[in-house]
Structure formats: C-alpha cells, structure tokens
Specification:
Length: 303
C-alpha cells in the first residue's frame, strides 16, 4: 500500500453530477483508508488544482464535465501525476455521445439510430425517421441529466427545449426498449453484465440514485454466448476510443434480442447504487479490492 504514496481522491467538482460524485468519492476514500492507503479528499470546486502537485497519484471519482471529459485528465498529464481511468482522448470522446457513436458505427459496432437536433430541425421528420418512443438527450451530460422519453407525437420540440438547457448540442435517439444492460471493464477483462429493471418509464436520474425499487440482476439472464458476444464487443468499443484502465459501457437490446451500444462512462459511479461495484461483486471482487485494482490500472500517459 505504501507504494501508492499520497493519493488524492477527486470528488465533487462543478458538473451537474456533483452530488453523485461526492457519494462516489466518499465511498472510494473510505475503502482506500480502510486498507491503509494514505488517501485524502480533493474537491476541485473548493481547492486550486495546483495543490495536486503534493500528491503522488490521483483516483478520479468525478463525474460529468470537467471530471470525465478529458479536461482534468489533461491537467494531470501536464503535471505528470498518474491517475485512474482512461486517458484524455477516450474521456473527451466518450463524454460526447454523438462522436462516440460516430466512431463506434465506423468500427462496425451497433448503435441506436439518432438525429442531431437544432432550432431549425424538422421535428416531424426526425420523429418519422426514428419512430416512437424515442429519447432526447444533451450530447455532453451524464446520469440522465436533461433526458426525456418522448412517447407521443408532438412532444419532441418540448423535449428538445428541455435538453438544450443543459447543452448546446442535443440529439434524439431511437428508443430500443427490449432491455437495458451494462458492462463494466477493468483492464483487459469484462466483468459480468448487469441487467437494469427500473420501476419507472426509463432509467432516469431518480431511478439511478434516489429510488430503491430499481432492480439489478447479475447474472443478467442472457444466454452465456450472447453475454460473451456483448462483452467482447464492449472491449472493442473501449479500445477504439483509445481507452485503458477501467470504464463501463451501457447496452440496449431490442425485442428481437439484437444489441446496441448506448454510451460509455469513463468514470463509473462508486455509490451504493452503482453498477460497477455490483458487477465486481458478482466476479468475486469486493468494493475494497475494486478500488485497489482501479488504482493499479492508472492511465497516465507516462505509464
């Protein structure tokens, strides 16, 4: 444990996911300290980044903008401080739902059909192309912030206006409603998949963090060969974005059982409701072991 040196756990931050990051960071910090790691909380919203120079290593438990979008990773690269999670490029592209889908589609990976929206969009044509239901979401937000489920004709403009409050880039995405799953990746390994069953219209912010009636199934219930297929493609989806370290990729299935890659989380949640710790537990990895494994999987450009 002493080899880790003095570790900063980055938590909080300034994004719309600040409160969740505080929970993730508190869990990580406590787990590291229980194992004798010299770990300390560091909130970029309350302390100048220059103070990170006193640390030997950084565990990134920030979510959203300025946390998992490549900006803090770039700062740490310039400082020469090893950090957890993917590097600058994978984080920057992964935070952008549009550009990650463009790359995945070019690599032959399945993604839901989508349309980029703006004030001049023909909303009726977009709805006709994607069909109903469909989702409208800010391109560069996480944790379902600003996401709306459109089920009725004529609701798309209002959903666009709501999403635009969170990001200048907004997309509409075909609703793939046959089941939602996630694949956590740790180094070169894909952990057991988790199936998500929200007791709500969709897996929104409340279902993720505030409600206790969302069901999580691990084993996920898929046939072993199907789960293996998705896990292998998820590892490819991570690689083509330039990812290393750890991450989590969300996957949707349609009624026929075909799968589609939805988005990547380059700083997965570590709260009591979070999916990566669930998947790790199913693989026989405790929360404490997981944080150490992540710390070993540092992604500084010098490593």
């Amino acid at each position: 444990m002493k080899n880790f040196g003095k570790v900063a756990v980055l938590l909080g931050g300034t994004s719309a996911e600040r409160e969740i990051s505080l929970q993730s960071g508190a869990g990580v910090l406590a787990a590291l300290r229980r194992q004798g790691v010299d770990a300390h909380p560091f909130d970029p919203a309350e302390e100048p980044l220059e103070n990170l120079r006193q640390y030997d290593r950084v565990f990134i438990a920030l979510h959203g903008r300025h946390g998992e979008d490549g900006t803090i990773q770039g700062m740490l690269e310039l400082m020469g401080i090893p950090y957890t999670g993917p590097g600058v490029m994978a984080c920057a592209v992964g935070m952008d739902k549009l550009r990650s889908k463009l790359i995945w589609r070019a690599a032959g990976l399945p993604v839901p059909d989508y349309v980029l929206l703006d004030d001049a969009t023909d909303f009726a044509a977009a709805e006709a192309r994607l069909g109903l239901p469909l989702f409208v979401k800010p391109v560069r937000e996480g944790s379902s912030v600003g996401v709306s489920l459109v089920k009725k004709t004529g609701e798309l403009p209002a959903a666009y206006a709501a999403a635009k409050q969170h990001d200048a880039l907004v997309m509409a995405e075909a609703g793939v409603m046959g089941g939602e799953y996630t694949v956590a990746l740790l180094g070169d390994a894909a952990l057991p998949m988790v199936k998500i069953e929200p007791n709500a219209a969709f897996y929104d912010y409340d279902a993720k963090y505030l409600r206790d009636d969302t069901r999580y199934l691990c084993p996920c219930g898929l046939a072993p060969e199907k789960e293996k297929e998705i896990q292998e493609e998820a590892k490819k989806a991570f690689r083509v974005l330039g990812g290393k370290g750890w991450s989590r990729i969300d996957v949707l299935l349609d009624a026929a059982g075909a799968h589609y890659f939805l988005e990547i989380n380059t700083s997965p949640g570590m709260t009591s409701h979070s999916l990566a710790p669930m998947a790790a537990k199913a693989a026989g990895i405790s929360y404490e072991e997981l944080v150490l494994k992540v710390l070993y999987q540092e992604s500084s450009g010098t490593v």
